[in-house]
Amino acid sequence: MKKGKQIYEGKAKKVFETDDKDLYIQEFKDDATAFDATKRGTIKGKGVVNNKISAVLFTLLEKKGVKTHFVKLLSDREMLVKRLDIIPVEVTMRNIVAGGMAKMLGLEEGIALKSPVLEYHYKNDALHDPLFNDYHIRALGLATEAEMELVRKNSFKVNDVLREFFTDKGLQLVDFKLEFGRHKGQVLLGDEISPDTCRLWDKETNKKMDKDRFRRDLGQIEETYQEVLKRVEG
Ligand code: 5GP
């Protein structure tokens, strides 16, 4: 697979064309940003960790019937993915109160939710990804009713599959963010699933094992990413 022109560089990844117009290469960087990129840094080895963890999780999800953009791993930092027309909606699934939900509703972090909470956020950094709902999505024509039905169904399925998987690895899946896109008339799960996009707390100690270590300057950042990879692959 020949790596072609770079078509996009985001905060944590670069995307390249290939000689197949339907396939892209997603390359994971060590760059870390938080709070709409007002905080910047590097987490050594993060790109490799996130590439490998995403590959394991996409493979597991495919096996469980969730269609994803993942094709195969190409190298330590690169994966081959299907080209997506990204739906500009970030889906957040929550099992335990943390982060944005704690702040918005004035709740303490760590409260176990009685049922998973699904949130939609408008994917727009300049506006800080504001919370909105399916009426906005429909009214603005960002996705069809049928597409959103698939997004919703798959998001709950991903939560079920990943919760069980991480529990097995001694980790609580607190919350995570998903992105979906269109590929040849299908809705596929895209982006990445990694400690950058999930909150993971150790089951025994509640230690934060995710990007909050960087966001909140908690230290042991590199080591924690490596530990999550070890558990995911173990
Ligand atoms: P919150 O809304 O609490 O800030 O985020 C909820 C979950 O979604 C967290 O696991 C967080 O890592 C993930 N998330 C939400 N928005 C983003 C984003 O723009 N970038 C990344 N990397 N993760 C996000």
Provide a descriptive summary of the structure in words:
The protein has 234 residues and is α+β, with helices and mostly antiparallel strands. The chain has two domains: 3-82, Phosphorylase Kinase, domain 1 (2-Layer Sandwich), CATH 3.30.200.20; 85-220, 2-Layer Sandwich (D-amino Acid Aminotransferase, Chain A, domain 1), CATH 3.30.470.20. The protein contains six helices and 13 strands. The protein has helices at 46-63, 99-105, 134-139, 145-168, 212-215, 221-233; strands at residues 3-9, 13-18, 23-28, 31-34, 39-42, 70-73, 78-82, 85-96, 112-122, 131-132, 171-183, 186-189, 198-202. Strands 8, 9, 10, 11, 12 and 13 form a six-stranded antiparallel beta sheet that branches. A hairpin with a 4-residue loop joins strand 2 and strand 3 (23-28). Helix 1 (46-63) packs parallel to helix 6 (221-233). The longest helix is centred in the last third of the chain and has 24 residues, at 145-168. The radius of gyration is 17 Å and the shape is globular. It starts with a strand and ends with a helix. The structure holds guanosine-5'-monophosphate. The site of guanosine-5'-monophosphate (5GP) has 15 residues, from strand 8, helix 2, strand 11 and strand 13. Residues 90, 92, 98-101, 129, 175-177, 196-199, 211 line the site of guanosine-5'-monophosphate (5GP).
